[in-house]
Amino acid sequence: MNSLEGGAQKKALAINLDPLPYGTFAEIGAGQEVARWFFHVGGAAGTVAKTISAYDMTVSNALYGPTSRYVSRKRLEAMLDHEFAQLLDRLGSSRGERTQFFVFADTAATCSYGRADSGRGWVGMRFQTEPRGEPSEIIIHAHLNDSTAARQQEALGVLGVNLIFAAFEKHGAPAELIGCLMDDLGRERIEIDMIKFSGPAFAGVDNRLLSLQLVEQGLTDAAMFTAAGEVVQPAEVLHKKPVLVERGSFRPPTRLTLDLLERAREQFAQEPGVQGEEPVVLAEMTLRNLLSENTVDHEDFLARADLLGALGFAALISRFQPYYQLADYLAGYTDRPIGLAVGLPSVRQMADERFYSDLPGGVLESMGRLFKRSVKMYVYPTLDLESGEIRTLDTAVIPPPWHHMRALLREIGRIEPIRRFEESYLAIRTPEILARIQSGDPSWESLVPGPVAALIKTKRLFGRRA
């Protein structure tokens, strides 16, 4: 018996031998891979009320309602709604006092003869933590990275077993629950890029923190949530949309931060491939920007997320370092223009070979990867504190021979200076503002947008002293 079989078998058997869980398995698109484990280990009569695979689209629509996309969150939620209501209606009176009802559902697409790319699926669990209790819910989105449909189906089966077991055994510790999802699997097989918890079992849980956990624990390279704090699967927001991104620490967002993004958006909106559309605007926080003494302060992260939400920006949390990694990621969801709003120091870093020790081609290779698609960089000027002079993209000192690269990128239209900017903002330095907030010096308030100042004062963020 290999470790994969041992882990999944033990978990499925443990659930089968528990007298409380009893429910439905509804699986579309990749076979009855999760239900199969519970039948395989024995004792399924104590756990399985029903299994169903509404594979035919007409049958699926009749059960769960029409939808334009069968592998979607909407379809998964309809499956959970329908099957859980049916459980309670048919079995609630006879078993409700001694049963924790649950529904496990997935809708997935694996690679096939006509579709050779990696598979993906929406997977969910609605469950009671006590008889007659209000249900709680976990929804995840997973990419299936194996090279064959059979292997992708196998991985989906193990993921489903892990989710069911973790929902019942680990719902009191969400961070541990997330880690359990990858038992006997690896990133080479499965990537989970969205997770959402809801219901009484997760009262007080902030799904933005769980998005951070997905990135921290290495289940994905990036996770996203909206300005309203709603976690989303990136394709739900980015699919075939022009995208503009600003990377930063946002601790806190300043007037310079906001001006940089707004001026870049003005120029991005004039690009031929963007005109007439409202681009998706993202604030990206990398793990490196979130680290303090090699750990991530979750309270500090939520403070930054709250401030970005107050400004109306969706947030992307990522493990990316060079900009080409970010561009590669976004290009996986959209074929539209991608804009990067950056400060001049970021351009200088791009010409530093030390950042590309893992690339055989160094700076040249990184530039090729970054600009191989419809990517354009908009560069905000900076103030030279020693000379008092304003340095722009065109006047900044770039060490040779990389100043030739700047000239080339300017000529082919892949990088351009931000032309309209507020000169008084150039002296703003985020560490200085943070120090003033923490010392009680009120002068910081004029250096950040009004909604940011109000929230920092109201919630006493970043250790603010009155």
Structure characterization notes:
This protein is of the alpha/beta class. It has two domains: 3-205, Maf protein, CATH 3.90.950; 236-426, Rossmann fold (3-Layer(aba) Sandwich). 39% of the residues lie in helices and 21% in strands. The chain contains 17 helices and 18 strands. The protein has helices at residues 3-17, 33-41, 57-64, 73-95, 149-169, 174-180, 207-216, 234-238, 255-268, 287-290, 298-310, 323-331, 344-350, 362-370, 402-411, 430-439, 450-459, and strands spanning 21-28, 48-52, 100-109, 119-127, 136-144, 190-198, 222-225, 231-232, 243-247, 280-286, 291-292, 295-296, 314-318, 338-343, 375-380, 382-383, 390-391, 415-417. The strands form four sheets. The protein has an eight-stranded mixed beta sheet, sandwiched between helices. Strands 2-1-3-4-5-6 form a six-stranded mixed beta sheet, sandwiched between helices. Helix 2 (33-41) links the parallel strand 1 (21-28) and strand 2 (48-52). The radius of gyration is 25 Å and the shape is elongated. The relative contact order is 0.08. The model has no long low-confidence stretch (mean pLDDT 93).
